[in-house]
Amino acid sequence: DSLLQEMIRSVLAVVLQMTGVASFAWAIHYQSYRVNMPVKLSPERLAFGGVWKYLTFLNMLLQCIFFSIALLSNFTKRLTKVRDIMFASAAFPMGLFVGVIFWSLWAVDRELVFPVKLDEYIPPLVNHLMHTTVIPLQLGQLLLVKHKYPARIIGYTITATLCMAYLAWVNIIYFYGGFWVYPVFSVLTPVQRVAFMVVCSGLGGLLYLGGELLNKIIWGKKKKQ
User: CA-CA distance, 98 to 101, in Å (whole number)?
Assistant: First the structure.
């Protein structure tokens, strides 16, 4: 039974990873080449930084690369360590961060993150591929594949560095481009803006710790070296 369960789990993991690669690759293609939005509707979209200023787009690239590596790691052990570090410190915490923050702000006021005027150019299916499917895909990866988490100081440092790098990028865009990437930043006072960034950074750290804890619960504590 255990052998059969292992085979089923391996097959499901491959299917999940292929789904991840295909869905994110298509969403990246759609975002890059098929969104023909009038400049007057969203003048900032193609301004300083282009689509590379959006965390959603950067996350889709990250997820597509991660699931490609995860898929290939089924056939070569050389990629296992890279897969595990990417999962622990980037793909899992960043993926869940995008989904949680996006839909939390949407619940408060969708105009803060995804104004109604965009629906005509970015249909619901694409929106979900950008902001929703990453959550079940990452949870599925966690459940189906055993990952060896790196030492916390290493993994946590990578996650923190990614968070700070993107927040720095947001401020660079504002300084040189003269606009905030997301409307939510423009409605906050400077103090509220700093507080929001601190909360976002804290959430990134909590998601790392949450992934580490869930991995231990599901797969058991890693053996001490």
Answer: 5
**Residue pair 208/159 in contact by the 8 Å Cβ criterion:** yes
- Segment 115-121 shows an average pLDDT of 89
pLDDT digits (tens, 9 = 90+) for 1-50: 588 888 999 999 999 999 999 999 999 999 998 888 888 888 888 888 88
Return d(Cα 181, Cα 171) in angstroms, integer: 9
The answer to whether 219 and 141 have CB atoms below 8 angstroms apart is no
- What is the pTM for the complete model shown? 0.92
DSSP string, 4-40: HHHHHHHHHHHHHHHHHHHHHHHHHHIIIII----TT
- Please compute the mean of the pLDDT values over residues 94-98 and round it to a whole number: 95
For residue 21, give the amino acid letter. V
CA distance linking residue 194 with residue 174, whole number of Å: 14
